[in-house]
Every structure is written in structure tokens, then in C-alpha cells.
Design a protein that fits this description.
- The protein contains four helices and 30 strands.
- By secondary structure, it is mainly β.
Length: 427
């Protein structure tokens, strides 16, 4: 993909009438931004973990936070005993008094973590942890600002996917760069997605399809490829690491799933139950059956080695942070202006000529969304009024524009740029 993008950029240069000087200036800016963004990349230096209370326990009801710089866990942030059992409706914000949703016996739906959790995802934008108790057909989240627990009422995984709920159907989860949460049922027959803003809705995107070259199938193989966890990359793909230490790459749009192989270098008793990306771009994986250490995995070779020495470890059912695997040049996607925490453009790359610009707690007023090509020609110029704390504008790229990279800018009423980002258009 990286080679394809640079090839497309080169072709685009040849097709334009820009001068050599303009090309050189643009290339210089391009690499300056690469260095700038590399130095200023904001990676998580922590991982949230659902662990047992004791070192080798089997109760997945403790939420902890691992500092990946000091390699130390915080004290228990939340568990079924330490925190009250109050759970609130995400829509009405009222306390839930009756727990009649689809559950299995002894699932303890009145407790925050039920009888245990194996699917966890960190929503950095809203500072929430989304999760699914293993025996409860329900999506929940913890507001890390208030430490209150909410449930998504009138929604369920089986209702969205039109399947009979079964134990541990939801045991892996991730929030991708597009802002959506994703999970794959243990049988591999449903790729489910939920939005993290506004009224939360769970949707079934459909079954996964095995790539023709696969020697291992992700579907209908719950014995071998169930459990585990998921991470995302910066190019529209998810990575499913099964409990049997196998790795599958899932293209979100096509749902085509490629078997990448098995992780080498792990102890025989190790089952990969949690996965996250560290600040160096490697995977951290944990096990619910092995408590001697976590492991670090090189995603280029899928080879594991013991993770940095930690002050204490626990059997761990799931891990989560907001880091992603990087497959594309960072300067193509990073913001290099102010308000990067208040303005977001997605998807990037753009494949269908449609994209969104999201405003989060930006000062109200009139703004201009402007898209220019590599030599400064304006191809899109939309005036908008921002009047809400959270507002999303959907835009169409005018037809006839060549694929390549473009500059997206947001200008305020004084025509001052408050946000700039490089956008890639793929056709």
C-alpha cells in the first residue's frame, strides 16, 4: 500500500503543470512534516487491562492500568466489589433497576463486570472504556471521568447480527481510527460495529471471507480461532489475534480475512487473550492462563519475546489502548496545526470521494472547510457554521480530481487557518 501511494503521488506530479521549483518545495515540506510528526506523535504510554484479582486467578473483574514506561500497574481502578453495582442507561442516564436482558445463569448482570470480561476497547476521544461481559448480551462502557458504568439499552449483539447469543460470543474488541468500535463473534460469522458518539447503535457488517491463499480459516472454527483480542492499523484493517496465537488481518470494507501465521516464541501454555500496541509499534500480548510475564510481538515477523520486566503480573483476559499498527507514512495522516484535539477528518485515505470533518468543542462561529491540491488549486470550499459541542460535516470530493494527496484546511471567520491535514485520495 505504501508503495502504491508514492507511485500514485509520482504520477500525479507528472500530470500537473507545476514547475520543478514547486515540486521541490512541496517535497521539502512533505519530509519536514514527516520529521515534525514523528517527533510529536502522541502515543499512549499505558495499557488498560482486565485482570484477575490475584496473580493467577480466574476472575476477570479487575480493571487496572499499566504504565509502559515504569512497567507498573496502578491499584485496582474498578472491580465488582470495590465499586458499587450501580449501572446507568446510556440514553436516559437513569439507574438501571431491572436486568432482564439476554443473559446466562450466574452471569451477575447487576454487577459492572458481570461474571467476567474478555472484550475491552479504549475510546480515547471520549475517555471511555467499552466492554462486553462474557455471559451478557450487552455493550457497556465506563466513563473514566466519573467512573460510572453505562449500558447501551435496547441494543444487543445478537439482535444486531440476528443470531442466538451463546457463551463468550464477544471476547475481542477494538476502537479503530475511524472512531468506530469493532468486534468479531467467536465463530467468525459476524463483524459487528458500533459508533462511540451520539446514540450508540450496534450493526452487523456481515460475515468474514477467507482469502484464497488461507491455510487456516477464521470462520466456523471456534475451537481453534476463538477468543483472543483485536488491534487496528492506520489503513482500514483490523488484526485478530486468536487465543491459539494465530493472527488474521481483516479488511474492514471488504471483510476479506488473510491468515498471517502463528506467533512464534511463546510458551506452550500461553494463550493470547489480550493485545494492544505499545508506543514503539510492537504488540503487547497477555494471557488468561499464563501469569509469569506479558510478551512483546514484532508485527513484521510475528515473533514474540518476554515483555519488559514488570513489578507484578496477573493473568489477564484483555488489553486496550488507542495505539495502532503503522503501515503508512506518518506525514500523510498527521495533523500539523492547532486544534488537532478538536477537529478530526476521516476516513483517510478517502476511497469513495466522501469524507467527514468532525468538530469537538470548537468555538462556535463560521468556518470554511477548504481542500487544495498539491500546487494550491482549490478543489473544495465549503462554508459552515459550528453551533454544537459535537458536530460532523459530511463532504463530497468533486469528481474529476486525480488521486494523490491534498491539503485540508479549516479557516476561521478571519480567514486564519486553525487546522491543516494531508488527505490522500485513492481511486
Amino acid at each position: 500500500m505504501q508503495g502504491k501511494i508514492f507511485s500514485n503521488i509520482s504520477i500525479y506530479y507528472l500530470e500537473t503543470k507545476s514547475t520543478v521549483m514547486k515540486k521541490n518545495l512541496l517535497i521539502g515540506l512533505f519530509f519536514f512534516l514527516a520529521l515534525f510528526n514523528h517527533a510529536h506523535a502522541q502515543q499512549d504510554h499505558f495499557v488498560y487491562a482486565i485482570t484477575s484479582l490475584q496473580k493467577s486467578g480466574t476472575d476477570w473483574v479487575c480493571l487496572r492500568k499499566l504504565n509502559t514506561e515504569t512497567n507498573q500497574f496502578t491499584t485496582v481502578m474498578m472491580n465488582n466489589e470495590k465499586i458499587g453495582a450501580d449501572i446507568y442507561d446510556t440514553y436516559s442516564l437513569k439507574k438501571i433497576l431491572s436486568f432482564a436482558n439476554d443473559t446466562f445463569s450466574n452471569s451477575n448482570p447487576q454487577l459492572a463486570f458481570g461474571s467476567g470480561v474478555a472484550a475491552l476497547a479504549f475510546d480515547k476521544k471520549n475517555n471511555r472504556i467499552f466492554y462486553a461481559p462474557v455471559l451478557i448480551n450487552e455493550l457497556r462502557y465506563i466513563d473514566l471521568n466519573s467512573m460510572k458504568t453505562y449500558t447501551v439499552a435496547d441494543q444487543s449483539f445478537s439482535k444486531a447480527g440476528k443470531f442466538d447469543f451463546y457463551p463468550a460470543a464477544i471476547s475481542r474488541m477494538v476502537i479503530a481510527p475511524d472512531g468506530y468500535g469493532y468486534t468479531v463473534t467467536n465463530d467468525g460469522n459476524h463483524l459487528l460495529r458500533f459508533n462511540t458518539n451520539g446514540n450508540i447503535v450496534i450493526n452487523d457488517l456481515g460475515e468474514l471471507f477467507d482469502a484464497p491463499t488461507n491455510t487456516e480459516s477464521v470462520r466456523n472454527n471456534p475451537c481453534s480461532n476463538s477468543g483472543g483480542d483485536m488491534v487496528a492499523d492506520d489503513n482500514g484493517s483490523l488484526y485478530l489475534i486468536s487465543a491459539s496465537n494465530r493472527v488474521f488481518k481483516i479488511d474492514i470494507q471488504s471483510r476479506k480475512t488473510q491468515f498471517l501465521g502463528s506467533i512464534s516464541g511463546l510458551p506452550q501454555t500461553f494463550t493470547a487473550n489480550g493485545a494492544a500496541v505499545d508506543e514503539n509499534g510492537n504488540l503487547i500480548i497477555s494471557s488468561s492462563a499464563y501469569s509469569d510475564s506479558y510478551f512483546s510481538v514484532d508485527p513484521k515477523k510475528w515473533a514474540a519475546s518476554p515483555y519488559k520486566s514488570m513489578s507484578e503480573t496477573f493473568t489477564t483476559a484483555d488489553l486496550a489502548n488507542s495505539n495502532v499498527l503503522h503501515t503508512l507514512p506518518p506525514s500523510l495522516f498527521k495533523t500539523f496545526a492547532n486544534n488537532s484535539d478538536k477537529i478530526k477528518a476521516y476516513p483517510n485515505p478517502i476511497f469513495s470521494d466522501k469524507f467527514n470533518v468532525q468538530f469537538n468543542n470548537l468555538k462556535t462561529g463560521n468556518y470554511t472547510i477548504q481542500l487544495t491540491d498539491a500546487v494550491g488549486n482549490i478543489v473544495l470550499n465549503n462554508k459552515i457554521k459550528v453551533s454544537q459541542l459535537l458536530q460532523t460535516e459530511s463532504l463530497n470530493v468533486p469528481g474529476g480530481n486525480a488521486q494523490g494527496f491534498y491539503f485540508l484546511r479549516v479557516l476561521d471567520e478571519g480567514n486564519v487557518s486553525v487546522f491543516t491535514q494531508i488527505i490522500v485520495i485513492e481511486r
